[in-house]
Amino acid sequence: MNVLEFSLVLWLGSFAAGGLGALTGLGGGVVIVPLLVTLGVDIRYAIGAALVSVIATSSGAAAAYLKEGYTNLRVGMVLEIATTIGALTGAYLGSRVFPTSAIAVIFGLVLFASAYLQMRPQPHSPPTARAERLADWHLADWLRLDSTYPTPEGPKSYGVQRVPLGFGIMYLAGILSGLFGIGSGAVKVLALDQAMRLPFKVSTTTSNFMIGVTAAASAGLYLRRGYIDPGIAMPVTLGVLPGALLGSMMLGRARVRVLRALFAIVIVALAAQMIYNAVTGRV
Amino acid sequence: MEQPRHGWTDHEVEQFVGNLLRAGVLISATVVLLGALLFLFQSGNALPNYDKSRGEPETLRSLSDILQDALSLDGEGVIQLGLLLLVATPVSRVAFSVLAFALQRDRLYVVITLVVLAILVESLIGLH
């Protein structure tokens, strides 16, 4: 296989990953790394390439979401302190501390967990009014986080709850992002929706808004260490970006339940392969 | 939410940030694509070596190295420049937010945004 053929294979795989990631809402980053590892790429170069593609797709989507007016910029800015510090921690652990086989095994286990969670119906708490503050030491008031979101009946206001808990979960999301090269949007939505009780659409758009900055924080470190290789990151980025664009355009028409099941199977297969390779000393 | 008396409204900031992100992604993807064509033209027939035998890279990549390679129209250098622009896109969004909050005279959020910007700069340049 020469460089041209290798690039084409990576491009096709990344295109499919970007499309499925956008359609299922899980993001393409999750399958990019195990896919590249299966194709024989060193896991740290795979993470570097995945991080760059995550920045591309989330920034592109954020541009569209911002026009709709759901994204809460202040909540995003405050929590980005947690995700970027977490991302630096994760990137440091991934590029300096953990051996590649350990990253592969832990990532594989995280993928199993996310495939399982994906198959379950998502729990979702209704947003609460600003009057009933849950454990937050007046942080939501001090930081002026409460806002409104558009509804057919006009703007509706919502209150933000449990800021410290959300901050802590976001730090964890940052670590996962820097360690595995994923956007960790699912964990971010968990913090915003479940812990901080933002309306669901505000949670998903604000999570996506934060993913680019989080990934940029770890990408900087991978770039300086030389783990963002042009030959690998190029086909991945150029594949994921149009794939995600096509996926998001097909969102209304596709059978998402079937696709989610399919995507979960792909994730489990790739995760199993990656763990097997790590245990047998091939990662 | 209360409208700020100075500078942009929150809505205007959102619109500008959206356009900034879109432009950043479009420009960097175009540069990566141009680099890809050069790269595949220059070394499409070579054999890739992306497995673990490659191990640790010998040198740390600096901004001036990347610019030098890109200016000499080396395919890999041009791709790297495009990837750098992509990483810089969210960073420029944060830098713009500092300015927007400053114009709104929102000191608290100027500080919060500066903290995020400092972390990003530390990651990209490495101050220690």
Overview of the structural elements:
The complex is a heterodimer of chains A (283) and B (128). By secondary structure, chain A is mostly helical. Chain A has one domain. Chain A has eleven helices and two strands, in the order ααααααββααααα. Chain A has a two-stranded antiparallel sheet. In chain A, a hairpin with a 6-residue loop joins strand 1 and strand 2. The longest helix of chain A is centred in the N-terminal third of the chain and has 26 residues. Chain B has one domain. Helices cover 71% and strands 0% of the residues of chain B. Chain B starts with 9 loop residues before the first helix and ends with a helix.
* Count of individual domains of chain B: 1
DSSP helix count of chain B? 4
**Mean pLDDT metric of chain B:** 84
Q: Which two chains have the most extensive interface, and how many residues on each?
A: A-B, 64 and 68 residues
Shape of chain A: globular
Structure characteristics:
heterodimer, A: 283 residues, mainly alpha, two-stranded antiparallel sheet, 2 strands, 72% helix, B: 128 residues, 4 helices
